[in-house]
């Protein structure tokens, strides 16, 4: 790899890390389209993205924990369902075509935009910043948290994302969790879920370690910044920016899928 390529991967990791800290996502939803745009196959891109995902989510979660804004028990409640599901998702990814993965990824983003919008319409009082920690439900080993984690884990292994793109809106919709609290809990769960998916992809030989570590190094720095910015943004602003981000990525993946369709 050239020095310019390494710098680009580091910058991508840093940018994704900021978004990771702000929105509770691993960042794979941006890394995967970027790597496929550079000519990486979708499967190696999804596998390699998990390296950056893990570094970013770990960095942001450590900062949230040090600030007293993260309850690891609640993140564990999501991760316990996501860890085995990430293994299954990684295996299933090998049986999807490039276009099938890309279009499915875009559909995932569209579904998440809808879920967030639905949650905002159902919750009248969740836009208040005050008390979002007190109003959040305790997530340990109850059924809904495990189910949410399992859905996120399967998608993490399949698409190379951390699963936050699903865990954040589902926590908001099903568990009545304010978005800032959902972001922090999701980011903590992504550490374990991402490690599970990465382990399976590593065994299958899908991971490109040098590009992944370059992105991870940038992600460590970016996630610290994003986690520090989150408390200063109003919850409706975070929610709105999150939906815009998903819409942009969905559009990119639709284009990628269309290009990958067999001609004729």
Mind explaining what this structure looks like?
By secondary structure, the protein is mainly alpha-helical. The protein has one domain (3-260). Helices cover 78% and strands 0% of the residues. The termini are far apart.
The number of helical elements comes to: 11
- First and last CA, distance: 35 Å
The gross shape turns out to be globular
Run of helices and strands? HHHHHHHHHHH
Mean pLDDT: 82
Which key phrases capture this entry?
single chain, 264 residues, mainly alpha
Write a short abstract of this structure.
With 264 residues, the protein is mainly alpha-helical. Helices cover 78% and strands 0% of the residues.
SSE topology sketch:
Blueprint: H1 3-23, H2 28-37, H3 42-66, H4 72-93, H5 98-122, H6 132-135, H7 143-159, H8 164-174, H9 179-203, H10 209-229, H11 235-260
